Amino acid sequence: MEKKKSYTELTKACAMTRQTSKGKSVLEIYVDMVIHESLLTTKRNEILEQINTSLDEQDKDKFMELTDELKELQVGYGL
């Protein structure tokens, strides 16, 4: 005799499948956030290093350009 699942069992199985697929997308979102944060931090550190160099060299034009770039980066990422 074949054992058939009841409607309740099928509903539970479907809900568990949806939760599992949601977990994957949440994980993917988290990975994207970590990658973006890493890229942001790297770019920010590069700009800050260049700003320090421009200050050491007393290059006002380069300093102004880099600080504007840093401001845009911060506004773009809501910092």
From TrEMBL:
Top-level taxon in the UniProt lineage: Bacteria
InterPro entries documented for this protein: IDEAL_dom, Virus_scaffolding_prot_C
Span of domain IDEAL: 34-70
Pfam families with a match to the protein in the record: IDEAL
SMART domains referenced in this protein's UniProt entry, alphabetically: IDEAL
Name of the protein: IDEAL domain-containing protein
Organism whose genome encodes this protein: Bacillus seohaeanensis
